[in-house]
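note to self: dont lose this again. the chain is below, predicted strucutre after it. 487 aa total, dont forget to put it in the shared folder this time
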Amino acid sequence: VYSFEGLAEKTVILVPEIVHTQVAVAAESIGMPIETVAYVFGMFACYPLAIIMSAVPYGMPRHIFSFFLGAFLLQFTLGVQWIHHLITCLVAYGMILVLPRRSLKTALPLFVMTYMTLGHLHRQYINYLGWDLDFTGTQMVLTQKLYMIGYNLYDGEVLAKGNTQDRAAKKCSKYALKEAPGLLEFLGYGFCFSSLLAGPAYEYATYLRAIDGSVFLKPDGTRGNIPSNVMPTLKAFLTSLVCMAIHVVLGGMFPLLDTTDPQHNTPVFLTQTFLEYSWPYRYFYMWVGLFATREKYYFAWKNAEGAQNLWYAGFDGVDDKGEPLGWTTANNVDILGMELAPSVQMMTRDWNKKTSDWLTRYVYMRTGGSLLAVYSLSAFWHGFYPGYYLFFLSVPIATFCDRLAKKKLGPLFSESRFSLYGLAGTLGTSITVNYMIIPFIMLAGGWSWDAWKANYFFGHIGCVVFYSVLSMLPTPKSTKKVKPKTS
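---
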């Protein structure tokens, strides 16, 4: 692989060397890694690029513009590693051209997952526990896109033949593709600049509506009312700035990992000195540190959402009367919904929404509702650090408690989030999930186990006790009235 690096370097032609030099100077002046600074600059660069995109004519010019801007951003942020994106797209397109659709829906997801898996394993081998940014981040977004388009083409063929037995294909019919896109159209989708660095990934049919302008059309083909994109853009952009500020300030006050050498030194809250503090303080410190860590994801997702909205790629379209449907297409997180969720189910629904859509439509629905398949693929998609698997193996325990509580306690209390039951659910969910998710940051199996041990395994023990007690309670009768059937 490394023998081809010289050839790959010759493809990095879109970014002048002076730009890389200036980024290095900026990174040194603020004391941050070059790749992190380049990534943040790339995120903000999507805004002026989106303004230009708005002026580009609909159709092929936009596909070409999307592709070349995406290539520019990748070369700017990742350098020679941009070639992975191009190789993956070209191989995937070749598979689309030659494979039968029934085979494609299996082969294409298998290929992109394998390519990404090898990237994760290579990263862990050469930089274990390192947090340096590399191509695997953007590759994760691309994997979702190509995984989906394989099924979209299969669904298109199935529905065209009038097959009504495939329920998953019918439910995803709005994303089905009757024919494969052209190469430039496909590259425009794979490299789409505004969703390249932080997502969200969505289906080709959704991308195409912003490219050809059909997002503004009513079902009868006439143009609907086009709303202003100023507030949807500003709201997401300003939210991203607030999140970045919170991450920088709180992250500096409550660091979880050692700030001098996070890759090798013991995490801050696992040091012997820190363990001498009382447990309530240690847990509070960990909770705030995790909150600060989530803010960087909120920053990236909200920043990308604003860039998408700026050229109406985040617009949902119009209804039969031509009225705007909303701006949820590029919305990847409901911050308040996530932080104040009264249940694990609602928390996961509001976090990384488009990844949840991908797993629901193309894994859960395609495997007969297998949660094992969903959690397994999600874990593989993230990588192979032990911490990921400790977390994903623990989440179902809390989910089972959620479901049982809804069955045993739900009918007895108000469903309002602001009721005593709702507030108790919010508090319990936050305390439990923040305990269980710490391995996601620790990554290493030893550190993850020590973090749980430092918290006396209260999350696991509490869930087992809670489930056992609820299991002994009688199931109350539902208070919901059943409407009588009419003939």
